[in-house]
Please model this.
Amino acid sequence: MVMNTDRLTTKKLSALVNMQMGPTILQKDLSEDGLPVFSAGNQEHLWGYTDKKVKAFPRGTLVVSARGTIGVPKLPQLDSFTCTQTTIAIQTTEELDVRYLYHFLQSINWDDIVSGVAIPMLTISKLGEVDIILPSIEKQRRIVSALDALLPKVRFIKSRLEKIPSILKKFRQSVLSAACSGSLIESFNSYNCDKWAEVRRLLNDAKDQIDGFPDHWMLTNLGNLCDGFQYGTSKKSETSGLVPVLRMGNLQNGEVDWSDLKYSSDESDMKKYALSDGDVLFNRTNSPDLVGKTSIYRGQAKAIFAGYLIKIKNRHDILHSEYLNYCLNSNYGRQWCKEVRTDGVGQSNINASVLASFLIPLPPIEEQIEITIRVQQLLKLSDSLESKYQKAMVRINKIEQSILAKAFQRELTASQV
Model:
């Protein structure tokens, strides 16, 4: 890089622009057509349209998010539009190229400007205090041209990377679906036939030879494979204590999340609701989308569980805890939860008697163990890919910020600026 050693001139943004908050436009003010409306947030696209009589802004007006996601600039390519009260509309003077300002605002660390408040908020006075590096208008335009050539390439790569989480989510669900349908172990055929025949005899109400599953699998109620179901403690948890109390927020992606813990020192609860390695916890009350999520406790630390959870006391000789966890978290299990839940005001419920009726595809225990091994291998691969994705995103974000920083410190090469 070639450093330009000319002294950098800075000015307060308030001396270079005219700013005003967007007019008040609520969801109810939106219509099918009318004046285009932009709002706060990361999205470049329209929030909607309005036929309400409000201030309209011309092309060349910059819109900056002032609530929630702070500082995100938008430069609408429209002849006329408006923006909401969650944004600040900026019109530049002849001394400042609006495209230069658009890029400059993306280089700012807004946490240094907006901090110490529960709801992030950017005011006109705070924005006006921003020091902007101000080269000549000709150099501003050259910087804009350089950035317009470089940043789209970086952002294209970033957009491709941002698709990876949804791909990995679909992959994980496909693994769980394959686990619970038998397709994951089509070539595996090693189980104790006599023992399996005895299990089939004991489960005389089982529905065998089901379509879409291996011929020797059964479909039976979960209650037939358990010694019972236990609700957690109803006592209030504390911010400190002897043992953690696992709550519905601690069940995440089939595992126990040990952050944001509450505690108990109640000796009777510590005995009655103690968890053992391999216990499966089912979330019986939550929002409609989250009710029924399930996780397995692996004995990482002593813990008990709260009342919105159910401990499934599965018989380990015929139902492997890992396999049960996969089934309940698979698309098959999640769809079942949607069909059987009881909806209330803001919450849904699936009680223990309903949970006992869950029809689980049941293979021999040897196959359940083999399924567990293969699922863990595939999920480990998925976790590795996610880790690489996160590192790649950190690098690409650093590259973008580095390009912006060098542009405004005039460190881009002469051919670029």
